[in-house]
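Why do we care about 3D structure at all? Because function follows from shape, and shape follows, mostly, from sequence. That is the central idea of this module. The next example makes it concrete: a single protein chain, its amino acid sequence, and then its structure expressed as tokens.
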Amino acid sequence: MKYRVCTNTDMGLVKEKNEDSSYGCVINTEKGMMAFAIVCDGLGGLSEGELASSAVICSFKNWIYHRLKILCKEPITFDVIQKEWGRLLQLQNEKIQSYGRKKGIVLGTTVMAVLVTNSYYYVVHIGDCRLYEIESHIFLRTIDQTIVEKEVLEGKITRKEAEKRKDRHILWQCCGSNERLVPEFICEKTKKGMTLLLCSDGFWHNLTLKELYQAFSTSVCETEKQMELQSRKLIELGKKRGEKDNLSVAIIKTY
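And the structure:
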């Protein structure tokens, strides 16, 4: 399996700094080529959100370039990934909280990370960044970890009621502001010719599934240059529609 990876981010129309962080790469390992991407959204309204998002990105980069090489000496399984990333995120959660206590501030970040191997792709998710899988159709693979979405899943309110709630974007957890994290872990089969789209809520807020599919489907978006142009096009479209948040996206294509 081969991969193309692209990342893009924009400060947006309102904020004075970009609290999002993103990263993507292709890695040559003992078990063959792999691809990795991550998007983190330092929470708007919380102090120094950009430090929280960049800290988590750095910890995953360190894991990719050091720890993953050691793990590749043995079979990589979903259980191994869950344990490794669970420990990594809990450690970052504690470090961010400790930093916040020393500074007298509250900071945190959402997390969406994906590792793609020849057989499976592994996902960890905290917050409301999203992962879409695009083939002949587009699928939303993650569930937004908002209080309102949780109430919908528990049957307390309807989807229509949720859409009218003013607090529908409030998270029930993020890395750095919860004592104990409960990440969502996902494992799916890797397929040739698929696209994995990771994005912050600022990116997906004002875009439809149809627009995402049309932009990143294989028929119109194959090369890294096309991936860059299409992601930039949708960022500008989101801004044109009044998006006030930072906008970030990462794309992995298999071929």
